[in-house]
Amino acid sequence: MDAIINEYKKYGVDTFYRLHSRDYENPHIDIIENLLSHAKTEWNISGNILDLCCGSGEVSHMLEDCNVDGIDPYTKELYEANTGNDCIPMTFKDIVENGIGKEYDFVICSYAMHLCEKSMLPMLLYRIGEVSDNLIILTPHKKPDCNGNFFKEVSRIKKERRTIILYKNRLSNV
Ligand SMILES: C[S@@+](CC[C@H](N)C(=O)[O-])C[C@H]1O[C@@H](n2cnc3c(N)ncnc32)[C@H](O)[C@@H]1O
User: Fold this and answer.
1) Using 50, 70 and 90 to split pLDDT, how confident is the model at 169?
2) Residue 160 belongs to what domain range?
3) How confident is the model at residue 146 (pLDDT cuts 50, 70, 90)?
4) Atom 4 of ligand 1: nearest residue by CA position
């Protein structure tokens, strides 16, 4: 597979993930695992977790001792086969329009929230804030910035130009 950015340009994001709904793999899994294992201890990630844009389930695998659900519009079959967890096939737009509908201790979104249209991001964050006090973003670049009316950054860990960021819900007292 070419660098993913070229694939996005060639096919568009939606078509790319439709084409790879059964064989998508994140090539940066080692660094994700490293960051997430540090964060898990430091931020006490536990309980009920939503793996948002869960792909083939690598992040969920790293949280095997938690109760994890997935959301992803394209990879439900692959994710459920790999993890045994449930996956709800929703897009960002579906979430904005309908909400998530279940509460979580943490929502984790790895290498994906930058794919949400900028204009839709505040409403997506509002919807996440309805169901969770904690949002964790794993990203290889500066986007997305989730600071705003609903969440504020409280901690980050950086390694090899990849970052994991913890945001707290502004309405949470914890
Ligand atoms: C780079 S992959 C990351 C997958 C996984 N979180 C990981 O770290 O391996 C991006 C994910 O976003 C999902 N995705 C693409 N467009 C989306 C959309 N409009 N709404 C929600 N998810 C989307 C894809 O199906 C894919 O699983």
Assistant:
1) very high
2) 28-169
3) very high
4) 55
Provide the number of structural domains found in the chain. 1
For a ligand 1 pocket test, name from 6, 53, 128 the mutation site with the most ligand atoms within 8 angstroms of its C-beta.
Answer: 53
CA distance readout (Å), 68 to 60, 64, 131, 140, 167: 6, 8, 14, 23, 19
CATH number at 95 reads: 3.40.50.150
CA–centroid distance, residue 44 to ligand 1 (Å): 25
Q: The whole model's pTM is what?
A: 0.95
Question: Residue 173: which pLDDT band, with cuts at 50, 70 and 90?
Answer: low
Q: Are strands 106-110 and 48-52 parallel, antiparallel or unpaired?
A: parallel
User: How far away, in angstroms, is 38 Cα from ligand 1 center?
Assistant: 23
4 C-alpha to ligand 1 centroid (Å): 12
Alpha-carbon distance 138 to 69, whole Å?
17
Is residue 131 in a domain?
yes
* Domain-located, residue 33: yes
Each residue of 119-139: pLDDT tens digit?
999 999 999 999 999 999 999
Distance 58 CA to ligand 1 centre (A): 12
In this structure, is residue 85 part of a structural domain? yes
* Closest among 153, 140, 164 to 36, alpha carbons compared: 164
